[in-house]
Structure formats: C-alpha cells, structure tokens
Hints:
The strands form 4 sheets. The protein has a 5-stranded parallel beta sheet with strand order 10-11-12-6-13, sandwiched between helices. The chain has a 4-stranded antiparallel beta sheet with strand order 5-4-7-8. A two-stranded antiparallel ribbon has the order 1-2. Helix 1 (3-33) runs parallel beside helix 4 and helix 4 runs antiparallel to helix 5 (140-184). It is of the alpha/beta class. The protein is built from 14 helices and 13 strands. Adenosine-5'-triphosphate is lined by residues 309-312, 329, 331-337, 478. Residues 5-178 form the ABC transmembrane type-1 domain.
Amino acid sequence: MKTPWITLLLAIIHGATGLFILVISAWFIAACAIAPAGFNYMLPAVVIRALALLRIASGYGHMWAGHRDLLARTAGLRHRLFKRLTNHRIGRKAQLADALSEHTETLASVWIACISQLASALLLLPLLLIAGVMLSLPGTIWLALLGIGWLILTVWVVVKSLAIAVKQVAAQHELTEQSEAYLRCSSLWHLYTQAQHERPTAMRLWSLETRLNTLSQQAVWLLQALCFVMLGLYAWYAGAEVYANPLAMILPLVLFAAPDWLGRAVATTTFAARFQNAQDALASLEMRKVNLQPAVSGHVRLQNFCAAGRHVAPVSANLPSTGIVTVNGASGAGKSSLLQAIAGEIPYRGRKYCAGITLQPGLVENWLYVEQTPVILQATLRENLAPARKICDEAIRQVLKDLGLSSMKNLNEWLGAGGRSLSGGERKRIAIARALLAEKQVLLIDEPFEGLDVFSCKTLAQLFNKIAETKLLIIATHIGVSQLQVTTSVTMSQACQSDKLCEHA
Ligand SMILES: Nc1ncnc2c1ncn2[C@@H]1O[C@H](COP(=O)(O)OP(=O)(O)OP(=O)(O)O)[C@@H](O)[C@H]1O
C-alpha cells in the first residue's frame, strides 16, 4: 500500500479508536452504576485498555507514515520544479526560493495536515450515526444534527479562508519583491537613512495569517457552542426512562468531546487556503522557455535586429565567419542587449541569419554569451571552468596561464561562498576561461576588458587575436585596446533612447 493511504488508514484508526473509547467508557460508567451482581467489569476495561494502546500506536504510526510521505512528496515536488527550470530563464529569483522552500512543503503536507483529518471525520460521523440507529441510542437525532452543523462549519471555513488566500498571495508577492529590492541595496543603507523608514513590512501578511488562525479558532468555538446547546436540549427533553439506560450517557460524552475529535477536522480546513496559495505561487512562477538550436557556423547577418522591449536602435550588419567583431557605442546604447539578443538569451526583433539560414529565437548549440557580470559557481575552480564536461587539467592550466591567472594553481580550490573571494578582474577572466574551454564556434563576450589593468588587457587582446583565427568573437566594449585586431565593428546609435521601446517580434 502507498504511504499516503497508510497515513489515511492510520488516521482513521486513530480517530475511530478515540471515538470507541469514548462510547464504551460512557456506557461502562453508566452500566457500572446500575450493574447487577455478577457484572463482568473486566471485559470492558480490557477492551478500553486495548483501544487506548491501539490509539497511541496508530497516532505515532500516522505521524511516522505522514512525515515519511511528506518528505518524499516535498523531494518529488522540488525535483519536478527543478526539471521545469531546465532550458528556462527565471524571472524573479526570490519567488523561486519561496516556491522551493515553503510552497512545495505546504503542497506536500496535504495528506498529513488535511486529508487524513477530514477523511477521519467524514467516516466517523456516518459510522456513529449508523451505530446509533442500530443500537437505538437515545438522542441519535442530535448526532445527525451535529453532523450537519459540522458540515456547515467546514464549508464556511473553506469559503472564507479561500477568500483570505487570494489576498495572501498578493501580499506575499509584494513582500518578496520589496524585500529583494531592499536587501539588494544594503550597501547604501548607511547613506540613505530614509531606507530605515521604507523597510518592507510583513504586517499585512501577518494580519491575514492571524485572520486565518482566528477563523479556524472561531470554527472550533462555534462547534463547542453547538455541542453545549445540543447537550442542554438533550438533557431538557430526555425523559426519566432515558436515565435508566446505560446507553444514555454515550451522547453527552460524545458531544462533550466533539471539539476534540471533530474540531481538528474543522480547523485544518483553513489548510485549503494555504494549499491554494502554494499552488498559485507555483503556477505563477516567472520563467521563459529557451529553445536550443543545432550548431551552425558561417557568416552572420543581422537585419533590422535589436533586443525586444529595450530602449535600443535596430542594427543591420554582415559579420564574418571568423575574426573579431567589436560592438561599440555609448553607455546604455544597447551593446549588452545586442549581444544577448544575438546569442538568443533574450527575445529580439528583426532577423538573424547564419550561413544563409534564418535562426529561430533561442540559443544556438555552438554559440556562447559571456556575461558582463560574471557568474561564479559555488564550486571548485575546476568545476567553475568545466561545469558541463570533463576537461584534462593541462588544458585548464594552459587557459589559466594564457589569461594571466597562472597563480591559481589549485584546481580544487573552492570559489564563491565559503571559499576564495575573487577580484573583479579575476572573476571576468574566469568567465572568459570557462567560455574558451567550452570550445564554442561563436563567442559573444560582454565587456571583457572591464576591470583589467593595461598589461592584462594586452595579454587578453593577443589571446583573442589567436582564437579569432578559427572562431568568431563578437566583443562589446567601450575600452579601446590597440593590440586587438578587429575585423569589423558595429556601432550602436542611441536612436531609440528618447522614443519608444523596440517592441516584441
Ligand atoms: N533587463 C532589462 N530590461 C529592460 N531594459 C533593459 C534591461 N537591461 C538593460 N535595459 C535597457 O536597455 C538599454 C541598453 O542597455 P545595455 O545594457 O544593453 O547597454 P550597454 O550599451 O551595454 O550599456 P553599458 O555600456 O553601460 O554596459 C538601456 O536603456 C537599459 O536601460
């Protein structure tokens, strides 16, 4: 049997044993009071004891199986979410972190936190009702009314909590975005005292959470009140003959304990809101699919080409199949955007051809964009340089030497958090080394000379000249390096700066 069903079964056994203990104890207390000589006290006592033991065992079992299921489900959901990310670019990273930590866990806990509680209540109420009818239990009608009252309360909690959930989703998005923006500018807090007053606040989120908790509490209190009223009415209307019947004690005890065995089921229905929240959050994750096209090399032609949705001017140019192409222009003219659009990293407008073939939106297998702000993986130097495939140490060391990084000898040295901190120039050259080792035919390198000293610029330019004998290097730069043997240049004008955005294709 699958773990969620075991969880459910154990929860039902747990609930049922609790109810049986209640029923048998109620009868036993009354029966003892009016029992004739020779009444067998042992048997009911043993049954109650056995039920108590079964209840304890099933309670622990339910927790054990439920948590086991929860862990497996959480892992499965996170795995599926990571799979969804394959070949996608992520919009808001903070939202994804929330999704991976909190929302997946909420979704995974549905069996242990909600279904098993509800199922147990839904099964026990009719069972009790049937038993009441069959045993002609005094006050069975009150049991039916209790069931109806419980159902109405449950529906009321679900409807109200779902309305709160919608507001929670919006508040959570707002808080995540505000926090991300606020934390990103932490280095400026000492300059900008106003920031202290503009701290993101979780008050709205907390007040909604409190409303949700209050709602479940109110539902339990209402159930309790309903039981007391029914108890009073039962006592009021019960005739004297009822009190001579040991079964007459069962209903009062069941009603007294109802908030205990039914209350949790009402309270957990606010889980529906959390579940809905988590589902919405996962569904609304911002991610964009990136296609991967087969390798292609040759002359590149751009026709009225520009990054979509950015303040940049379209470009038309013919680029050689090998050599160095520099992309020049004022800061903000769109050099990085053009490189990213050619590489297929972002949507574009216009057309791009390679070897006469029209390239579709998406990445090209043998083209690689080297970002302006290098990504350093939290991994060893070796893994940073060869993240995708195994490359022999000699080749890695040679590239490091060519880039003036021969002081980095230990390829097992940890970089990033908890490891070696790198200077801006070192980060830049590690990203370039990674690109060179990837052995792509077209490299689109964003500001490679930024942050480098004159000598390093010269070394890098000479290396680029050598590589460009067999590959096409498209380099965005506003730093002129005289040693760089440029085949052709593309100059970005700022035509779009003051007017409209380059719209989506
Ligand atoms: N992610 C983005 N979304 C929307 N607009 C963007 C984005 N990134 C940049 N832009 C805008 O696109 C325009 C071109 O930016 P881009 O970074 O391509 O210029 P650049 O020439 O590389 O600048 P720099 O030399 O300063 O790095 C700018 O007006 C910028 O505000």
